[in-house]
């Protein structure tokens, strides 16, 4: 779908039913299928190519007697600029083990590629919240106010970041509702507190300095408290912000103008199962897509 709400391309599912989009990065889409087994795939919408990720654990973790259905999984991937290859980070959380498992897979086109076991995250990651990838670095919440970072090139965890200091009291503090986004190459923490959405930009990584650049009135005719999923997707050249808002029963693609504090609803496109920004070239040869 383009920014006018027009569908520009439909892509066939990689398999049958019960398949969801998890994450979109540049020109690839990660999907999850849950049926008899759990299967993760990477899809290229331009040419229909599908890469199934191995299901088995890395050799370093193979001696652990756990099944895939026994743990929750986070899958996120990004491009390593120095090699031009995609790498996938997989974090597995099982209540039977103290530490979360961390594995990396390189998408190099070979059938011999396997997951490689890596050190556990420095803090327990929030498995229910999605992360972002910026310049080959994966960012994931390790607590409501802390952010873990993983370097896909070196395959090592970096220093944990302190999130923005959001001063809240009472119910607002107990119901901290943060999301993460990548806007204009910057890491952004999105904080929703009815009826507003604040965008905190990390402007100095070394000093861990955050600045609240926007405070947006969401302006929805819904009753509070409603747990919204708010996903800023893109800052346009003129400064307008493209945002997807999921209120549970429906979703809105909305463009906000910070200069005039007004917004335009572009399309109603359903719930948030797999909203993301695709930056690949859909004019490539389409094999299995239309």
Automatic annotation (TrEMBL):
<dbReference type="InterPro" id="IPR013187">
    <property type="entry name" value="F-box-assoc_dom_typ3"/>
</dbReference>
<dbReference type="InterPro" id="IPR017451">
    <property type="entry name" value="F-box-assoc_interact_dom"/>
</dbReference>
<protein>
    <recommendedName>
        <fullName>F-box associated beta-propeller type 3 domain-containing protein</fullName>
    </recommendedName>
</protein>
<dbReference type="InterPro" id="IPR015915">
    <property type="entry name" value="Kelch-typ_b-propeller"/>
</dbReference>
<dbReference type="Pfam" id="PF08268">
    <property type="entry name" value="FBA_3"/>
</dbReference>
<feature type="domain" description="F-box associated beta-propeller type 3">
    <location>
        <begin position="35"/>
        <end position="267"/>
    </location>
</feature>
């Amino acid at each position: 779908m383009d920014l006018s709400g027009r569908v520009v391309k439909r892509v066939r599912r990689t398999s049958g039913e019960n398949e969801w989009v998890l994450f979109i990065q540049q020109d690839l889409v990660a999907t999850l299928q849950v049926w008899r087994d759990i299967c993760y795939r990477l899809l290229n919408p331009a040419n229909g190519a599908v890469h199934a990720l191995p299901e088995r654990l890395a050799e370093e973790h193979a001696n652990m007697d756990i099944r895939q259905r026994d743990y929750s999984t986070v899958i996120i991937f990004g491009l390593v600029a120095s090699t031009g290859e995609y790498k996938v980070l997989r974090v597995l959380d099982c209540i039977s083990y103290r530490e979360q498992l961390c594995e990396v897979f390189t998408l190099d086109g070979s059938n011999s590629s396997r997951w490689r076991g890596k050190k556990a995250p420095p803090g327990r990651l929030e498995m229910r919240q999605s992360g972002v990838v910026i310049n080959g670095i994966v960012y994931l919440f390790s607590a409501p106010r802390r952010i873990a970072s993983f370097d896909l090139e070196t395959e090592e965890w970096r220093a944990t970041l302190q999130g923005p200091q959001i001063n809240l009291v009472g119910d607002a503090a107990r119901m901290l509702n943060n999301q993460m986004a990548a806007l204009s190459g910057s890491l952004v923490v999105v904080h929703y507190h009815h009826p507003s959405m604040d965008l905190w930009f990390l402007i100095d990584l070394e000093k861990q300095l955050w600045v609240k650049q926007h405070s947006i009135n969401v302006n929805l005719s819904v009753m509070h408290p409603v747990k919204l999923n708010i996903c800023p997707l893109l800052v346009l050249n003129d400064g307008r912000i493209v945002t997807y808002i999921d209120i549970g029963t429906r979703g809105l693609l909305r463009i906000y103008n910070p200069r005039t504090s007004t917004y335009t609803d572009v399309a109603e496109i359903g719930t948030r199962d797999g909203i993301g920004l695709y930056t690949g070239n859909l004019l490539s040869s389409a094999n299995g897509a239309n």
